[in-house]
Amino acid sequence: MKKIAVVGVQETVGREILSFLEENGYRAADVIALEPGAPLGSMVSYGEETDLDVKNLHDFDFSQAGIALFASTEEIAKQFAPKALAKNCKVIDCSAAFVSEADVPLVIAGYNDNKIAEAGRGLVAVPSAAVTQMLTPLKKVNSEYALSRLVISTYTSTSVYGKAAMDELFSQIRRIYMNDTLADSQKVFNKQIAFNVIPQIGDFIGEETQCEWAMNAETKKILGGGVKVHANCAIVPAFIGTGLFVNVECEHEVDVDDVRKLMKQTPGVVVFDKNLDGGYVTLADVQGENDIYVSRLRQDASVDNGFSFWCVADDLRAGVAKNAFEVMKIMMNVAAAN
Description:
Mean pLDDT: 93
Low-confidence stretches: none
Shape: globular
Number of helices: 8
Distance between the termini: 15 Å
Order of helices and strands: EHEEEEHEEHHEHEEHEEHEEEH
Strand content: 15-25%
Strand order of the largest sheet: 3-4-2-1-5-6-7
Structural class: alpha/beta
Number of strands: 15
Helix content: 25-40%
Oligomer: single chain
């Protein structure tokens, strides 16, 4: 088998992809760790007992790999994914670099696997963590009731911006407890993040932020353009995880008890929904978990055919890395069959 390249191994998602590879029995000898500008001698952990040499992405010959998973910035993906494809190396992109390109399928493993066969260039994209987290519990619901409108409020941890953002949160919390000034502490965020909520993820595109635009565009690309989407996205002072409140309207009369049953039947989804104190799942409960957790599922009497739910997940593992890993396995099987 040709080797698996992981681009961006020194960032949060890249490390989680390496974890999935190691946990699922892929040998260190079959994995290539890549990082832009990595100095000679750089290493990254692969499981508890093994380290991988980190190779400089700028010097790497992609003919050595059969598939590359890009857990990098959009700029890096746009620069190096075409170089990988030119060497007949298939690409899975975890950034939003290629979402708008019509010939690049946007895939949630187990949801629309059939789209992988349409990747004529050998390039597949995976959606943002919040979109995967929202749509996975709705897979069977959509088939049964036909989604027509989604209104989403996201509460996203600092991990969406990577390690530097998580470090900034930690540093600000420490300074506050030490009664120290927060001057010069805002490098990633344009507002204080410690003990605060910031209603902006990404740059503004008109009235929407990049995250809100992506929730709309990615959802429509997966479900079809007929569904209406409105998203409100905020950063909360947590290190890992994303929480979503999702209001759903369907074309057909909906039974919330049946929705609960359908969600329980969906692989990768855990419904923990008790109408009592603490009978729900929070961000602090899901760090390191591979599943998406649903709580607060209830009828929305303010609209026809509506219901709402709360869901949380580890955005790094369940939101992106797990999906990228599962898409990789499907692509390998398709390639082997051909």
